[in-house]
Amino acid sequence: MKKVKLTHITLFLLIVFISSVAFQITEECDATTLKKELKRELRPDYKYDSSKTTRFTYKTKVQAKEIEVPLFMGEKYRFLFNTSGLPVGVKIEIYNKKLGHKKRKLLYTLEQKDDQHIYAFEPVKSRKMYINYTIPESSEVELKGCIAFVLGYKLAVLKSLD
């Protein structure tokens, strides 16, 4: 009987521990909330196209992550970033070519401000673009962060042929 009670108590404590760890992970980066904030910034001129939440753990060395964003030529787009999931600032740059390409050009650098966490970029020319996140080094153990990215496209209004 004592073994059964001990097993039940151990199982209960294990479930409580696992659920608290899962809660901490979602608290660090609530992707749904971050994306909702960005989707509001698309209205009224832009429609939601796609999104990507990038999660990472800060390390003792600088890291880089790259996202490819295919765009249709001739369309108007808005790139939105939500950095409120970052405990330490991350450098965000947008390029015309992928990492390592010899004709790669910087199109945009996001300048983060202390009182702002939503940023927008509207490219002049539509083509495939590459978003680079440069994550700085950190000595803090288990420091995690995330960035939400939302892509919107402009609605073209057709004029009637009266």
Description:
The chain is of the alpha+beta class and 162 residues long. It has one domain (30-154): Jelly Rolls (Sandwich), CATH 2.60.120. The protein has helices at residues 2-28, 31-40; strands at 46-57, 63-69, 77-82, 91-95, 106-110, 118-121, 129-135, 144-154. The longest helix is centred in the first third of the chain and has 27 residues, at 2-28.
Provide the descriptors you would attach to this structure in a database record.
162 residues; alpha+beta; Jelly Rolls; four-stranded antiparallel beta sheet; 2 helices; 23% helix; 35% strand; globular
Instruction: Please tell me what the overall shape is.
Output: globular
Q: What assembly state would you assign to the polypeptide chains in this entry?
A: single chain
CATH class: Mainly Beta
Kindly state the percentage of residues in helix: 10-25%
What is the distance, rounded to the nearest whole angstrom, between the alpha carbons of the first and last residues?
Answer: 87 Å
Order of helices and strands: HHEEEEEEEE
Major sheet description: 4 strands, antiparallel
Order the strands across the largest sheet as they lie in space: 1-8-3-6
Secondary-structure-based class equals alpha+beta
Taking all Cα atoms into account, the compactness measure Rg is 21 Å
Number of helices: 2
CATH topology: Jelly Rolls
Count of structural domains: 1
Layout of secondary structure:
Blueprint: H1 2-28, H2 31-40, E1 46-57, E2 63-69, E3 77-82, E4 91-95, E5 106-110, E6 118-121, E7 129-135, E8 144-154
Antiparallel strand pairs: 1-8, 2-7, 3-6, 3-8, 4-5, 4-7
